[in-house]
Automatic annotation (TrEMBL):
Residue ranges of every copy of the Cadherin domain listed in the record: 84-164, 165-273, 274-388, 389-493, 493-610
Biological function: Cadherins are calcium-dependent cell adhesion proteins.
PROSITE patterns xref list: CADHERIN_1 (PS00232), CADHERIN_2 (PS50268)
PANTHER family: CADHERIN-23, CADHERIN-7
Protein keywords: Calcium, Cell adhesion, Cell membrane, Cleavage on pair of basic residues, Glycoprotein, Membrane, Metal-binding, Repeat, Signal, Transmembrane, Transmembrane helix
Entry's transmembrane regions: 610-639
Subcellular location: Cell membrane
Keyword Signal: yes
Membrane topology: Single-pass type I membrane protein
Organism listed in the record: Crocodylus porosus
Pfam families: CADH_Y-type_LIR, Cadherin
CDD domains the UniProt entry points to: Cadherin_repeat
Name of the protein in question: Cadherin 7
Length: 796
């Protein structure tokens, strides 16, 4: 193979054919090199005419330039030469080059016009370049010839190997296909020039995969080469396909790809059972629909070709067992269709067939696509619970039956060969009230309590039968006991009637239709008879008519009913049923006298309405009462508010004593004053402070007031007084919402000094005499000086 990056002379070992091609290429190269010497012949002669068409001799004479791709030399590759007739060789003309790749790929000698390629060219990247050439006067830099365009084409060499753009490939072909069956087509592409030489002419060959497959050299179609390829023997093949250019000749480049061929399945294998017979043991207690066994016929095929069906074609268990197919595993599932009984039959034999669902007629010669096997099922004996002779027993008993009355009998037996004795009992979860008993040995059911059909008409109980030898084996029987009815309930009103009669009712007017009910359920239905009791039969107000259809009608006997005379009537009605013996009851019908409108609709039935003045309705009366009650409530609220709103005992209305500041110049008595502050008041609840801070004194008046204490035998009076004032302050809506100190001017009872109040004592017209204060001793000297009339007083 020729490498894309160049070849050394040691690698150029050519055969005869290759040598001929090489000489042709050299000759073509020399010819093109000669043609590339484009000579510019500048003609100064006049145009001449030929065949009637004007023709001028051109100054530029050249053809296309050609250059080989992938040149790997160190020197620039010579492309061609430009020359103009104007150029005399004296250096007055210079050549310039422009267009694609000018200066970057192609350069020109401005003196000689030689063109060189400075970079390696690749035809697969760009096949040709379009450039423009111009000859300029070196001194004036003006063109001496018009600009002309030319093309440099890249000459292709075989430097690209074929490539499989879609590889690697995967394909499938049915197994057992005949020789020549098409599998898949592969395609390789070559980037070389398909119009020049054989560089892009590809042929295909198979390098791996013989002798099973082959490939068409020109088309790349892969076909089967061997018949009867079996998927079950080998299902996958890996092929290696080669594509080589130069028509597959030596020196051509090649590429390869892989093709994975999978043999798809066909139904060429019939199902076969691994064994000719099977045997399974099954306990007789296995319930219906239980799976007994699973069998499977082997089939080497897959998918739908391996799908099969199973059926029982013969044997003595056709009605006892059934077989179905598991769609996922293609197994035959044998299940019980009827209950097994070891005592009746101990074994069963089944002939089972397995067959393919989808048979390919091309392979019928391989044999029948079905198979047979034998399945033997052995029934095992187990200890079974007792079995009742009937699944459901129906019994009847009268509700009048006495305790101990026999209702019926149940029977059960042990189905096993041992035939163990059976004992009976009632499942008390089904007879919570214990209405019934059963004899443990005989199975006789009797009543244990009085029965009431109206409470429970049918009793459903479960009877248990257990083996004496194995109490764990318990059978269950079901008994439905229906209670027969007797006439033990008297008839009564069907509902609570609200009967009214209008004051303007006429004699014979129907005021009520009544009916009756009875809790009993006689076989022929109810028949009730209605009448008035003996004491009511001769009343002058109402009468009763029996309608003979289990209803009765109440009618008036007179007119002129008045509520103020009698507002309610009580009518006793006697009802008798048709039972044997018959039962009766007396029911009282309450009839109210009402005021009715013209249509006979009751408006009011209260006798008190007659005391109202004429023209006032009930609604008006209610409105008047509501107004009166509202006024009473308002009056009570006003009175309560006024009682709670009281003035202070000693304060003036116009003064706000809360904002007064009172200062007392009370100086202590010194160490000798041992009575100024009596600490006993803090320890003795019976000693209370007699004198409070005087808030009734004008702030400008300054005096000293020493508090005094007195002892009383009991402080109950003060507690009650303070508690009353506290409650008044809490409920008083006019009291301030802030915390305040409540001062109470209550001095108690039995004060020796009596009242020391100084209200109005500072007025000029006061006739109060305080001279006696000076007789009380030195403690009252200050007060005597302030309020006395002597010359030593402070105020006059």
């Amino acid at each position: 193979d020729w490498s894309k990056n160049g070849r050394t002379q040691s690698e150029m070992k050519l055969g005869r054919v290759e040598f001929c091609h090489f000489l042709q290429i050299i000759a073509l190269f020399l010819c093109l090199s000669g043609m590339n010497q484009a000579e510019l012949s500048r003609s100064r002669s006049k145009p001449y005419f030929q065949s009637g068409r004007p023709r001028t001799k051109r100054s530029w004479v050249w053809n296309q330039f050609f250059v080989l791709e992938e040149y790997m030399g160190t020197d620039p590759l010579y492309v061609g030469k430009l020359h103009s007739d104007v150029d005399k060789g004296d250096g007055s003309i210079k050549y310039i080059l422009s267009g694609e790749g000018a200066s970057s790929i192609f350069i020109i000698d401005e003196n000689t016009g030689d063109i060189h390629a400075t970079k390696r060219l690749d035809r697969e990247e760009q096949a040709y370049y379009t450039l423009r050439a111009q000859a300029l006067d070196r001194l004036t830099n003006k063109p001496v010839e018009p600009e002309s365009e030319f093309v440099i084409k890249i000459q292709d060499i075989n430097d690209n190997e074929p490539k499989f753009l879609d590889g690697p490939y995967t394909a499938g072909v049915p197994e057992m296909s005949p020789v020549g069956t098409s599998v898949v087509q592969v395609t390789a592409t070559d980037a070389d020039d398909p119009t020049y030489g054989n560089s892009a002419r590809v042929v295909y060959s198979i390098l791996q995969g013989q002798p099973y497959f082959s490939v068409e050299p020109k088309t790349g179609v892969i076909k089967t080469a061997l018949p009867n390829m079996d998927r079950e023997a080998k299902d996958q093949y890996l092929l290696v396909i080669q594509a080589k250019d130069m028509v597959g000749q030596n020196g051509g480049l090649s590429g390869t790809t892989s093709v994975t061929v999978t043999l798809t399945d066909v139904n060429d294998n019939p199902p076969r059972f691994p064994r000719r017979s099977y045997q399974y043991n099954v306990p007789e207690s296995l319930p219906v629909a239980s799976v007994v066994a699973r069998i499977k016929a082997a089939d080497a095929d897959v998918g739908s070709n391996a799908e099969m069906e199973y059926k029982i074609v013969d044997g003595d268990g056709l009605g006892v067992f059934k077989i179905t197919v598991d769609k996922d595993t293609q197994e035959g599932i044998i299940a019980i269709q009827k209950e097994l009984d070891f005592e009746a039959k101990t074994s069963y034999t089944l002939r089972i067939e397995a067959a393919n669902l989808h048979v390919d007629t091309r392979f019928l010669s391989l044999g029948p696509f079905s198979d047979m096997t034998t399945v033997k099922i052995i029934v095992e004996d187990v200890d079974e619970p007792p079995v009742f002779t009937s699944r459901l027993y129906s019994m009847v008993v009268s509700e009048a039956a006495k305790v101990g009355t026999i209702i019926g009998t149940v029977a059960a037996h042990d189905p096993d060969a041992s035939n163990s004795p059976v004992r009976y009992s009632i499942d008390r979860n089904t007879d919570l009230e214990r209405y019934f008993n059963i004899d443990a040995n005989s199975g006789v059911i009797t009543t244990a309590k009085s029965l009431d059909r109206e409470t429970n008409a049918v009793h459903n109980i479960t009877v248990l039968a257990m083996e004496s030898q194995n109490p764990a084996q318990i059978g269950r029987g079901y008994v439905a006991i229906t209670i027969l009815d007797i006439n033990d309930n008297a008839p009564e009103f069907a509902m609570e009637y609200e009967t009214t009669v209008c004051e303007n009712a006429q004699p014979g007017q129907v005021i009520q239709k009544i009916s009756a009910i009875d809790k009993d359920d006689p076989p022929n239905g109810h028949q009730f008879y209605f009448s008035l009791t003996a004491e009511a039969a001769n009343n002058h107000n109402f009468t009763l008519q029996d309608n003979k259809d289990n209803t009765a009608t109440v009618l008036t006997r007179r007119n002129g009913f008045r509520r103020q005379e009698q507002s309610v009537f009580y009518l006793p009605i006697f009802i008798v049923d048709s039972g044997s013996p018959s039962l009766s009851s007396t029911n009282t019908l309450t009839i109210r006298v009402c005021d009715c409108d013209a249509d006979g609709v009751a408006q009011t039935c209260n006798a008190e309405a007659y005391v109202l003045p004429a023209g006032l309705s009930t609604g008006a009366l209610i409105a008047i009462l509501a107004c009166v009650l509202t006024l009473l409530v308002l009056v009570l609220l006003i009175v309560t508010m006024r009682r709670r709103k009281k003035e202070p005992l000693i304060f003036d209305e116009e003064r706000d004593i809360r904002e007064n500041i009172v200062r007392y110049d009370d100086e202590g008595g010194g160490e000798e004053d041992t009575e100024a502050f009596d600490m006993a008041a803090l320890r003795n609840l019976n000693i209370i402070r007699d004198t409070k801070t005087r808030r009734d004194v004008t702030p400008e008046i300054q005096f000293l007031s020493r508090p005094t204490f007195k002892s009383i035998p009991d402080n109950v009076i003060f507690r009650e007084f303070i508690w009353e004032r506290l409650k008044e302050a809490d409920v008083d809506p006019c009291a301030p919402p802030y915390d305040s100190l409540q001062t109470y001017a209550f001095e108690g009872n039995g004060s020796v000094a009596e009242s020391l109040s100084s209200l109005d004592s500072i007025s000029s017209n006061s006739d109060q005499n305080y001279d006696y204060l000076s007789d009380w001793g030195p403690r009252f000297k200050r007060l005597a000086d302030m309020y006395g009339t002597g010359p030593e007083s402070l105020y006059s």
